[in-house]
Amino acid sequence: MTGFFCNFISMRYDVIIVGAGPGGLACAERTATLGLSTLVLERQSIIGKKACGGGITWNGLIKKVPDALHEKVFTKQFIHTRYQNTCVSSPTPIIATINREKLGRHMAQKALQAGAEIRLGCNVTSIENGTRLNYTDTVTKKHQQEIFTHLVGADGSSSMVRRYLDLPVLSVGIGINYQIPGNIHDMHWYLNSSLFKSGYSWIFPYNGSISIGAYVDNKKLKAGILHKNFLRWAKQQGFSLKGVQPSAGYINYDFKGYHFGNIFLIGDAAGLASGLTGEGIYSAIVSGETVAKRIHDPLYRCDELKNIIKNHRRHKRMVAFAGKSNILSTFLFELLFVALKTRLINFKAVEMSRE
Ligand SMILES: Cc1cc2nc3c(=O)[nH]c(=O)nc-3n(C[C@H](O)[C@H](O)[C@H](O)COP(=O)(O)OP(=O)(O)OC[C@H]3O[C@@H](n4cnc5c(N)ncnc54)[C@H](O)[C@@H]3O)c2cc1C
């Protein structure tokens, strides 16, 4: 994929998408398929480089991703709270892991095949009059302007398109990930409120490596303390992190709408990730596809997105409840644990794709 080139005459596109994460690429593939001229601008030179645990839920997403991209698929989940340990199993897969760079390459290929244009190394710096945007080529430092009929902000949790719309981000989670070499079989979740408040830590196996990380609401624990607590937990689990670089990022769950005249927000830019679990790839892809259909057909009902918004609000209420005190988060986790163990609920109950 070359994708990148810089012309010096502004062009008009039906749709310009800022950001080539899963949301932006899903949107681009769909708008191009629907016959709309589509340009994606991505500031990084590589698609898919992103701090992420790479966990995707079976019902939500994994069915949309070809088998070749599955790292590992799990029919069992090991859950550990402060007081209990259990294994939840299902006859069908519950979760799989994917490598974000492989997913990015796959999605970019599909968007290009559909006719979208993708330019890498293009940092969008400003938007003018809701009709044109300026960007800088990060290698040559040259500036360029393009004109759009519709603009899609798919530029993640620190979205500049969202800032242009004057929508502050007040509710964010923070995630930290270490990708370490190794081979293990099982997927583990640790709901330990004394270390991670209403958040959790994870062990997600890949082929030949393991993602270990933690997620927490930024209001409850600042990044430095999260990292310190995470290192304590990793040591308890017997992981050596020597020489491994961590990656970290914010996860925006402050949803304030997705449609603002001719400008749309999707994925983390819209604040559509789960505040409870940090799950955001599914919301990004579904919101990208839905917004594409909505741009093509102003009467499109966007029902898939409405379902995500409903689940998102439910998760946000749970975060607000659990975040009130350590006692409440411990109570919620132990309750959730019993409900999963007794099969009163299954894993789907906490997925963003829940119907
Ligand atoms: C540590 C961690 C672990 C996570 N684990 C999981 C998990 O296991 N499962 C899950 O479902 N979710 C997980 N998430 C959340 C998930 O990564 C995000 O919700 C998802 O990537 C959102 O997709 P997106 O397309 O909206 O945005 P992003 O993937 O963030 O993509 C945005 C893109 O926009 C580009 N961009 C930004 N600004 C500009 C600009 N000005 N000009 C041009 N381009 C720009 C960026 O370079 C980036 O490529 C995790 C997040 C973190 C931080």
Description of the structure:
It is a single chain. With 355 residues, this protein is α/β, with parallel strands linked by helices. It has 2 domains: 12-49 and 100-169 and 252-320, FAD/NAD(P)-binding domain; 67-96 and 173-250 and 324-350, D-Amino Acid Oxidase, Chain A, domain 2 (2-Layer Sandwich), CATH 3.30.9. The chain is 30% helix and 29% strand. It contains 9 helices and 18 strands. The chain has helices spanning 22-33, 100-114, 160-164, 193-196, 223-236, 267-270, 281-296, 303-322, 326-341, and strands spanning 12-18, 38-42, 55-57, 70-74, 76-81, 85-89, 95-98, 117-120, 122-128, 132-137, 143-153, 172-181, 188-191, 200-205, 209-217, 247-252, 259-260, 263-265. The chain is globular, with a radius of gyration of 20 Å. Mean pLDDT is 92; it is low at 1-6. Flavin-adenine dinucleotide binds next to helix 1, strand 2, strand 3, strand 9 and strand 12.
In short:
By secondary structure, the chain is α/β, with parallel strands linked by helices. Helices cover 30% and strands 29% of the residues. The strands form three sheets. Strands 1, 2, 8, 9, 10, 11, 17 and 18 form an eight-stranded mixed sheet that branches.
What distance lies between the first and last C-alpha atoms, to the nearest angstrom? 37 Å
Name the overall outline: globular
Low-confidence stretches: 1-6
CATH superfamily (homologous) name of the largest domain: FAD/NAD(P)-binding domain
Q: CATH class of the largest domain, please?
A: Alpha Beta
The percentage of residues in β strands lies in 25-35%
Number of domains: 2
**Number of alpha- plus pi-helical segments:** 9
Largest sheet: 8 strands, mixed
Helix percentage range: 25-40%
Named once each, the bound ligands are: flavin-adenine dinucleotide
| SSE string | EHEEEEEEHEEEEHEEHEEHEEEHHHH
Structural class: alpha/beta
